[in-house]
Amino acid sequence: MPRTITACLTFGLLAVTLIACSSSAPSIETKPTPAGTTDSINARCRAQNWPQPMPNLAGKTFDSMSSGLVCFDRLKALAPDGHDVMADAANAAGEWVIVSSKPSPGASVRISTPITLKLRAPKAVR
Question: What Cα–Cα distance (Å) separates residue 54 from each residue in 40, 47, 100, 115, 122?
Fold first, then answer.
């Protein structure tokens, strides 16, 4: 009889654990925000001290998720023909090089400051 009680208690605890873990456990998935970042990145950006100086990005490869750009909510990256590469799925990361930024490097910026980058295509490899 003691074995039956032990087996029932063990099975009961396992069932309760499985139900608790599958139905009420918080999700570890991150949700995209309108700016295209994830909640955890957004939280890290908002936890930083703002305003900050605008970084000098001239000559660097453009990638909105790196180069210190991930925190900016209002980022435009303009190709020489004037189209915004942020909204152009055909443009792969690393395809463009930053020529200049507005505001200029060193200017005081916040997460919500509109940032416009002028880009150029990389030079052809010979």
Answer: 22, 17, 12, 9, 23
